[in-house]
Amino acid sequence: NLAGNPKASLAAEHYEEDWDRVAWVRLDGTAEVFTSGGEHDEAVRLLRERYPQFNAKVLDGAPVIALRIERVLSFGPLDVVG
Fold first, then answer.
1. Does residue 56 form part of some domain?
2. Looking at the domain assignment, is residue 53 inside a domain?
3. Residue 54, in any domain of the structure
4. Nearest-5° Cα angle at 8, 15 to 66
5. Which of 62, 71, 75 is nearest to 20 (CA)?
6. DSSP E strands, 15-58
7. Which candidate, 25, 21, 19, places its Cα nearest to that of 80?
8. Contact 15, 40 (CB under 8 A)
9. How far apart are CA 12 and CA 78, in angstroms?
10. Which of 9, 21, 25, 61 could make a disulfide contact with 74, Cβ separation 3.0–4.6 Å?
């Protein structure tokens, strides 16, 4: 629950059977939830720009989570991802 404890992490991994190519990255920071205002509106605009499917969705008041990154951790060859 971010309202009680705003510390949060976002993790992404790349898995392969060849463990020499397994990689992950984790972003740790402080999260803030927006349901309106400038940061909310900008996040919605960027989502709609990147994913046109969101143009058909009502996102007014939908929560947006901003993660203020304080630490980055990673493992493995991140250049294999992509």
1. yes
2. yes
3. yes
4. 100
5. 75
6. 23-34
7. 21
8. no
9. 11
10. 25
Q: Which amino acid is at 76?
A: G
Question: pTM above 0.85?
Answer: no
Say if 20 falls within a structural domain: no
Tokens 């898995």 sit on residue: 15
What type of residue is 15?
Y
41 is written with which tokens? 């509106």
* Residues 39, 5, 38: CA angle, nearest 5 degrees: 5
Structural domains in the chain (count): 1
- Res. 81: pLDDT tops 70: no
User: How many other C-beta atoms are found inside a 10 Å radius of the C-beta of residue 64?
Assistant: 19
